[in-house]
Amino acid sequence: MPNIKKRSAVAGVRATAAKVRALYSSGQSLRSISEATGMEEASITLLIKGNDRPKRTPRQAVGMPPSLTDASVLAGLESKTTFLNFLQFLKPLCWGWKLRTLKQMVERFADESGWSLVITPRWRHEYAKLHESAIPKRIHQLLSLKNGKEAAPTWTTEEIFDTVTDVYEELGVTAMPQCVWTYDAVDVELPEPPKKRRPEGVIGEETPEHVTAMCASSASGSLIPTALLFKGVRIAAEWKSRLSDVDQENVALLVNNSGLCDPLTLSKWLKTVFLKKVQVRPVVLILSSVYCQPEYYGFIRTAFDEQIHIVAVPPKLTSVRLPFATNLHAAFQNAWYEGLDEELLKSPAVPLSRAQVVEAVMPAHKFFLGDALVNAFRDCGLFPVSPHVAAQGKIELPVAEDEDMVEITLLQPPSPETQEAIAEALALFARAGVSEIRAKRLLRNMDVPGIY
Fold first, then answer.
1. Each residue of 2-59: pLDDT tens digit?
2. How many other C-beta atoms lie within 10 A of the C-beta of residue 245?
3. Where would I find the beta strands (DSSP E) of 210-306?
């Protein structure tokens, strides 16, 4: 007897595939096709780039050639100012990129713009030759590469600061610190809620909950509301009702499935927090090159459309040259942990509420007051631009008994009685649902000796 359900499922898959091919052939973008069919863009790409990929009729734009893939119309690309502007926009953020990264970025940009673009070796060689003087040096190097001969990207500190200087001068913000911003994310691990006894034979530990503070400040010392990213599905109304008026004014609330910053959340932060508070255009946003990979295309595209010029700092220089990472990140995080510890001591066995987490983070903003942010930019050499300035040391917490939150080392090991008391205390915290790391931090704050 024929399997009717199986045949029906196969027919449905074929119908969906036919619909996707028809939409793509009519010139629809991947995003539009995804919204129409409910399929992921990655699945759509695999489907339309198979052996039976249909010949696409791209959408026409006024004054544009029918296709970017035809070498005979390469001269006409000079009129595609938007395409060329996007390549120039990538100059300060393509450190460490390889050819495949550039291809993913540019092909997606072209697809969303309604152009049919497939970066073949012939196309990129001819385009690089035609626009050698207009496109950035690194982009030209990638487009000019021969197949299989891609060298590891290299850069110098001087090149990075020269690029920053060029961006400032082109945008006219050399003397406008209010137009130069930096972004960083600071995450903490929350105390774990009380757990039920784990059944015998079950191994492994539950992942602790994280909360991330998404911060942005300008070289003039301005600070937009800190966005706190919680793990969850939605922002319940009672969250905000428990916050004070000051907290509601200085904190924005976001949620995702992990509590850690991801590409979708960063793009949402840019649209709902940064763009609302920063009205001046154009502006420069300095951040780590981690946020300039293909998965962050949505964030980069929004920045391009809104005249937010991204300057990425390569990974090897992030800990030295980014204002938050150099002077403020550790101090802010440690002060936040101290606030959480104080809240936890009130009721160790009860999970912290969202309002308590917000209340705990507010005192940490003391490190952003006064000239701290202005000095951070200056000490990093980012504003004013000074590649030879030496970055200052990290800000130390004004807590004598646990300064800088470093591990305490003792000249003499603790006595057996002390070790036994510490073990009993850790066991009590464990039964209350507090992780070992957080329990040790609490004991250190109570001046218990022998905690490493």
1. 555 445 555 666 777 788 778 777 777 777 787 787 777 777 777 776 544 444 444 4
2. 7
3. 210-218, 226-231, 251-256, 283-288
CA–CA separation, 302 and 265 (whole Å): 13
Mean pLDDT of 156-171: 90
Look-up of token digits 């603790």 = 414
Strands 180-189 and 283-288: parallel
Cα gap 87→74, rounded to integer Å: 16
Convert 256-286 to b/e letters by CB count within 10 Å (16 or more is b): bebbebbbebbbbbbeebbeeebeeeebbbb
Give, in order, the Cα–Cα distances in Å from 408 to each of 196, 342, 439, 451. 33, 20, 15, 7
Dist. CA 326–CA 321, nearest whole Å: 7
Question: Cβ contacts of residue 428 below 8 Å, gap of 6+?
Answer: none
Q: Is the Cβ–Cβ distance between 352 and 343 less than 8 Å?
A: yes
What are the φ/ψ torsions at residue 115 (nearest 5 degrees)? -110, 145
Task: Give the integer Cα–Cα distance in Å for 401 and 399.
Answer: 6
Give the tens place of pLDDT for each residue, 287-301.
998 999 999 999 999
With contact defined as beta carbons under 8 Å apart, do 267 and 300 qualify? Answer: no
First vs last C-alpha separation in the chain: 70
How far is the C-alpha of 47 from the C-alpha of 43, rounded, in Å? 6
Hey, is 362 helix, strand or coil?
helix
Q: In whole angstroms, give the CA distance from residue 385 to residue 163.
A: 10
- Spatial strand order of the sheet with 308-313 comes to 251-256, 226-231, 210-218, 180-189, 283-288, 308-313
